[in-house]
Amino acid sequence: MVPHDLLFVRRPDAFACDGARPDWLDPAAPLVVRREATAPGIVPVGARGLARNERCKGYVAASDVASIVTPRMLAARARTADGDLPCIAALRALAPRLDALDVDWGPAGGAGFWLACGLPVLRASSDLDLLVRLPRRPSAGLIEALCALSDGQPCRLDIQLDTGAGGFALAEYARGGRVLFKTDAGPRLVDDPWEAA
Questions:
Q1: Which of 12, 21, 160, 164 is spaced 20 to 30 A from 94 at the CA atom?
Q2: Would you give the distance in Å from CA 140 to the centre of its chain?
Q3: Residue 64: active-site member
Q4: Contact yes or no for 84/106 (Cβ under 8 A)
């Protein structure tokens, strides 16, 4: 279980909220793995509701996880995703281009959540969040090809790169200079994400 994986739990009370349990919490909805150092067997997760402001963080025991849906698994569903929202249209159009780049990719954020469970969390104005896992430093050509995916899309595209040790925004990396590298120990500014393990 790594950040951006979606988890379905065995029982409604498996999710331990960090604070008061919100009324909007749907025990059937998946939880998203987030970045935080925890004790062995404890997974840091986030829950989301149908509205943008319905978010909370918490924890779940690994033993309570019934199934895991990874962004890569959702990439397979992206090619035939049904719906006319701009972010879903962009996802269908981009899937073959991402496949051709031969990278481990998948939808994250609202689009990933929607593909995993079907709950109506997307709007006409929703961004398309994509995750690309790059454990080794990519070529300049691959970075250029990933940046070009945004051209002509009907929605805003947000691509996050993950090295295995942390994640960061493609757009920030492509601009040059230091990037905000998000890790289990918290975010930090780094010059080279692949040297920052």
A1: 164
A2: 23
A3: no
A4: no
Does the annotation mark 5 as catalytic?
Answer: no
Per-residue pLDDT of the chain (197 residues; tens, 9 = 90+): 999 999 999 998 999 998 888 999 998 899 999 999 999 999 999 999 988 889 999 999 999 999 999 999 999 888 888 878 999 999 999 999 999 999 999 999 999 999 999 888 999 999 999 999 999 999 999 999 999 999 999 999 999 999 999 999 999 999 999 999 999 999 999 999 999 76
| Segment holding 16, helix H or strand E | strand 16-17
Whether the CB-CB separation of 146 and 160 falls below 8 Å is answered with no
- pTM score, two decimals? 0.93
> 3-state class of 13 per DSSP?
helix
The one-letter amino acid code at 125 reads S
Catalytically annotated residue among 26, 104, 127, 158: 127
Q: Are 56 and 47 in contact (CB under 8 A)?
A: yes
Distance separating alpha carbons of residues 32 and 117, to the nearest angstrom: 12
Q: Which of 129, 158, 184, 192 is catalytic?
A: 129
Question: How far apart are the C-alpha atoms of 8 and 157, rounded to whole Å?
Answer: 27
Pairing of strands 65-69, 42-48: unpaired
